[in-house]
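Morning!

This is the sequence you dropped in the shared folder:
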Amino acid sequence: MTVGFLLLAGCGVMGGGSGGDGSSSSLSHNQGSNSTDPIQDPPADLVLGQIDFVSSLSNQGQSSVNQVGLNNPVAVAIDRSAVPNRIYVSDFNNNRVLGWADISSLTNGAPADLVLGQPDFSQSSCDNGGITADSLCAPMGIGVDGGGNLYVADRGNSRLMVYFSPFTTDTTADRVIGQPTFSTAGCSNPQPFVASSISLCDPFSVSVDGAGNVYVADMANNRILEYDSPLSTDIVADRVIGQPGFTTTAAGLGPSGLNQPYDVTVDASGNVYVADFRNNRVLEYDNPLGSCSTCDTLADHVFGQPNFMSNIVNAGKGPTAPSDKSLAFPIGVAVDLMGNLYVVDYANSRMLDFFSPLTTDAVADVVFGQPSFTSNGCNRKGLTAKSLCLPHSAAFDGDDNVWVVDFANNRVLRYGNPGAPPPPPPSNVTVLNASMHFEEENPTSCSLQTELEFSFEKTPGDITSGDEGHTTNDIVDSSVVVTMTFPDNVVATSLPGTGVKEDDRNSPEAPYFYGLEYKVNFDCATMEAHVGPYELVGISVSGTLTDGDTFSGTGKAKTHPP
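The structure's back. Tokens below.
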């Protein structure tokens, strides 16, 4: 079986024309994230805990706790296992966690649908009814795993509470970590103030990776504990970060130390980020559960300080002199779906966004809550949709909107997908054509052979700013990725590192044409079920140039019968 694909770009500068299906393709050229002006002070578009953006009273100014107000919220978590997503907020001074069942229908000041840690929405006592599976005291960080199970760092009781899918079951905790039973509390039980692999002391946050492994910021013990799939194994920690062993607790510096870690998160690649509060920095650890050469419990990147041995507020420039490279008591970390890092910078009353920091730099690209990177202070220009006052935590929903806990303003703010890099400028790079066909190699698999031609303008005067001198010789072959999207949104992607340049360099157009061939394995039966003759198929191409700039493009191909 063979199915062919043909793409012709419109108005190519090297003579490309419109395809028979009327489709067209263009290729854009991105420069590094810091080649554009930083984004400053974007506004929020939704608020929970208040009815509008100019109110900040605890419990919405009511004399008693209620279903809509908050009293110093400290954490937010999104349950992406449900569509629409669910959202949870840790309401610290009300000793409870609130849940909203449908994130897509929320309006400003929407009432919560669920309460954990209290018998109802009108009560707020610490350990209401005693220390039990139904109580909470000063809850801090919260997390949700891929099964919709909720994890709550119950700081006042030095324990981690686990609720199996509370929206579909009940609000009684099903498992406790850090304490022998649901009725015990206190630092480092069963031996008070003696740390171990089964104890916690003032846990501040929790994060769960895609495999169900759990990370806890055990703040008072100056460490991060990792539990391998505790819901299916045991509640004994398997790894410790920030300490040489499970029984030590001293604060430290350098790539191996921590000083009151307040938050921890894990990205899609298994890299771990820690808000090292008292060291005024954020540390990143390359996939500590992996097998790579740097996969260990030593930090690989530092943000907010010039090196691993520095820990001064705002990188030594003092509490009133923040910058795009400094931090003052960072308290929260989050990573979006594109790998951008968000740091909640508590004492500077702002949040910083670093575009793809593991491949670019440690300089922030976006600032939230302040009019510039060099300003700080609570509600700097008044209480608005742009202001923050001692923010605490951040999380992303399935649409990559970021939710930020604005602690002192008693609210949670949503910013609609704010951290994406700005649109790239027009490019002098064009996809002239692409042809694709499937060739059956055996009864159960197909190989997608992709041939593409790229064009760069030849006339120096026509080359746009930032593209001077680029030709196809500047394309890094191993970086080029081709993706095909079928009409029902099933996606096939090329194997990495398989692009090769055309051998023929005698053409008068060389080196402005670029040809490559890719192969990707794809199940034949699946392919036949998703695409047929005379259908439009989306094609995207991206890659990197030798100077570090990137290019990308999209188009449509029309399938042809074998």
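Headline: The two ends are 7 Å apart (CA to CA).

More detail when I'm at my desk.
O.
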